[in-house]
Amino acid sequence: MFTSTFKMNSKTALIHFSVWIIFVLYFAISYFLLWWELKPIKISFLEPLISALTMALCCYLVFSSMKFYNPSKKQYFKIIAFCFTLTVMSLGLSIFCIYQFFDGPSLVHYYQKLPYKFIINFLVLSCMMIINIFWNVQEEALENDRRKLESERLVRDAELYNLRQQLQPHFLFNSLNSIIALIGVKPDLAKKMTFQLSDFLRGTMRKDDKQLIPLADEIKHLELYLEIEKVRFGHRLKTNFEYKEEVLQAKVPSMIIQPIMENAIKHGLYNIIGDVDINTLIVLENNMLTIEISNPYDTDQFYNKKGTGFGLSSIQRRLFLIYSRTDLLQIRKTENQFTAIIKIPQHD
After folding, report:
1. CB 280 within 8 Å of CB 292
2. How far apart are CA 130 and CA 115, in angstroms?
3. Which residue of 26, 102, 290, 333 sits 20 to 30 Å from the alpha carbon of 244, by its own alpha carbon?
4. Phi/psi zone of residue 246: left (φ > 0), alpha (ψ -120 to 50 degrees), beta?
5. Can you give the pTM of this predicted structure?
6. Which residue range(s) make up the domain with 118?
7. Rg, C-alpha atoms of the chain
8. Residue 97 within a domain
């Protein structure tokens, strides 16, 4: 609202400034040419003043009439006709006023110069009309660009929200199944897991309206998720984090690490007997936050050969929507180790 008002006020001020510049220049040039032609006769300033005032009035009419009108290519003859009409109007008003203040010889002299005045007035008004048309075209183009960017932003935000929502059901169903399995055997663990799941989902809903959050908040939310998974898998799941305190203030997309951790747990624990270590390394160098999550995996398992899966592909899509880059998610595989690498640009 304030921006549009400011633009309107600045445009109005520029219109007034332009019109009065034309008035001053028209008066000065008309008076000088009249003095040059009739010297040493004393020249009255009324005739140039009247001509300049009528031109200023016609310029205001141009701005007022073109304020909400932008002609198409086939309507430019109307602009020429409009300029012609305003030119005749300006000269007619000047002649009418000169009749009130000047004698016959002065009128004769004015009529002698009438063709030149017609050409000058027509050219000035045509220039004002063309400038106003280009002004309107530019404003319309800027407004169209603004609406396009706003529409693209809304579509991007809707897709980001949809991607975040798709990440939750899979984890939620697994957690509920684990709670059901624990109710009869270990009711205390089932109760604990229920409270942890509640805290995790509450934190997820709070972050739905935040695109970028501090890494410290993301890690706290991730720890809630890992506590739930540790209840499910017991002592088999071990997680290690390695980072410096300075990286905790870095900004990351909300819930960007949890799908990778879920993918690491799925491929690391479901097909391997014994304890499994999932290592997370976080470093910040040259305004680029790098997050590496490594887990063991069984190369003989069929679904490990099927690709990155929905979790990683959704992360890659989110990173592209936020940063417009396709190189921020990388996958590295060794003989029995799978590593997902996320790079988050840190803009000042």
Report:
1. yes
2. 22
3. 333
4. alpha
5. 0.55
6. 2-148
7. 38
8. yes
